[in-house]
Amino acid sequence: MKNLPVNLFASVMGLSGLSLAWRLAHDSLGATAFVGEAIGVFALGVFALISLGYLVKLVKHPQAVCAEFLHPVAGSFFGTIAISILLLSAVVEPYAAAAAPAIWTIGVVATLALSFIAVSRLLKGQVDASHAVPAWIIPGVATLDIPVTGQHMRMAWASEINLLACAVGAVMALVILVMVISRLVHRDPLAPAMTPSLMILVAPFAVGFIAYTNVIGGVDRFAALLLYFGLFMFAVVVPKVFRPSVSFSPSWWAIGFPMAALANAALRYSAYRDSGPLWWLAIGLLVALSLAIAVLTVRTVHIALNGKLFT
Looking at residue 100, what is its pLDDT? Predict the structure, then answer.
């Protein structure tokens, strides 16, 4: 358990995003409801299992957790825990209307706290620019996930929290995105094990589309611009990520949530525009996401059973 990676929580993000995408497909395309709900239950189980394992790690090896949290790259992945909680609040909302706001509130507090810590670390100065990797974007995307999942929260203060989070997340994501792209352009390429994290470059635009449309209550031209640039970035990074030379590791789960966010955004936009080509694009993204998550799940179970997950 000492070597259980915190970035494994990204699997919960991918599974939850897939569940919500299939739920949208049920509403707009008439897909069977069972698929999305079954994936949601599986996501809850995976979250419980990983949380239990990481709690054991915290109790038995607190120094390992502390080192991971303080690491200039790995520390960003603690945002995957907060995002998982936020997404699971949306997954359980139709079945636990009373529990969902409590889960969402926990996620909001954790997300804002981690975002505050991330910005504070950057502003302390003397930060090594080579550490500006796509994982740095996670705290900003996490903040955007507050309005993504808080649309149906009925607390009097929820709408203001959504606005606050959208403002913080949008600026954080864009500022850090510029830093990351500058590092990718001017310094050595990412290590092979970090290559899948390039997919995170899609997330600010796909998640931003959903957050923005939730805040304003509809789809407009600016939302469309966010989606289309997200699609452009997806087309750019796909050939860089999906290479046979990149061996499988838990870091591959970095592709799950960005692809899920893009599929959800495309389904929403297709429902708004009601255009045949857009529907086919959204369906293609949903199929690609489903296949990717299925492969990642099977391969993760395999390395968990043979012990390589913990080495």
Answer: 94
